[in-house]
Amino acid sequence: MGLPSSVKVLGATYTVHQQPANTDESNVSGLFDYNRRTIYVDGTLSAEVQTEVFYHELIHALLAHTGLEELLDDKTQEALCTGLGTGLARFAEENRE
Q: Which CATH number characterizes residue 74's domain?
């Protein structure tokens, strides 16, 4: 799956950039920026991993827009986004027509 250039998340349009996120944290494959309405995915990763990272960041966006991120600590939120992101990426791949 090629990543879209933009996506709508509950009415908000997010631009998707396939480039490393500008962050002080090391080992970051993606980033969701609520204020800039942007999702960053490291474009140097394999296509399969980029798709997983994209869904991971998309779930962060959904959690933010629904207010559910406030109910989860950081560790739980990351585990949830990773598990669902990987699951959704594989689901999409296995059910392509």
A: 1.10.10
